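Hi support team,

I've been running sequence recovery on a batch of backbones for a student project. Most finish fine, but this one hangs at about 90% for roughly twenty minutes before it completes. I'm not sure whether the input is malformed or the queue is just slow. I've pasted the structure tokens below so you can try to reproduce it. Let me know if you need the job ID as well.

Thanks,
M.K.
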């Protein structure tokens, strides 16, 4: 599917309601619509050679939250402009970047969480969900009897299952 490019304002009935953006702000919006992170869009739109990574991140965050920029992004997305897709590669790279920022700021908990999420995204963790609706009652009683033999006996009585002293 071909993507439409923003040349000026998206063709909408209320074009005149959109605020004017500077050329750099418009470039920032274009990069966001192409799927770049706010930080990468900021780097591509502004001169950042003499800026620290945290400063770039803060400036990109402020610009992304700016009401004029937000209005353009919302209008462009409603008009189905841009791709703004999250790819696995981009997602994992962003989590790695966030982990590094967290480590740099001494926030080990956030760094661990980012690393955990990177592992989940790349398939290193498998969530095991047990369907309790299709369990074998005898197996459930056996497992329960390891924790509480008395509770297992009572459950067996309530369910009408023969459960003697030899089972636990």
């Amino acid at each position: 599917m071909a993507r439409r490019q923003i040349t000026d304002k998206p063709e909408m009935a209320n074009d005149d309601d959109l605020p004017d953006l500077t050329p750099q702000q418009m470039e920032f919006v274009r990069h966001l619509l192409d799927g770049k992170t706010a930080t990468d869009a900021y780097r591509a739109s502004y001169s950042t050679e003499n800026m620290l990574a945290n400063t770039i991140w803060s400036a990109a965050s402020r610009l992304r939250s700016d009401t004029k920029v937000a209005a353009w992004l919302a209008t462009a997305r409603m008009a189905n402009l841009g791709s703004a897709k999250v790819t696995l590669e981009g997602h994992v790279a962003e989590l790695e970047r966030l982990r590094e920022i967290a480590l740099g700021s001494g926030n080990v908990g956030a760094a661990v969480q980012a690393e955990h999420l990177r592992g989940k995204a790349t398939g290193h963790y498998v969530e095991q969900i047990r369907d309790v609706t299709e369990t074998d009652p005898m197996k459930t009683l056996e497992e329960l009897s390891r924790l509480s033999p008395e509770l297992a006996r009572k459950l067996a009585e309530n369910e009408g299952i023969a459960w003697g002293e030899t089972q636990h």
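--
Follow-up from support: It reproduced on our side and the slowdown came from queue contention, not your input. The chain has three domains: 1-85, 87-128, 132-161. No action needed from you.
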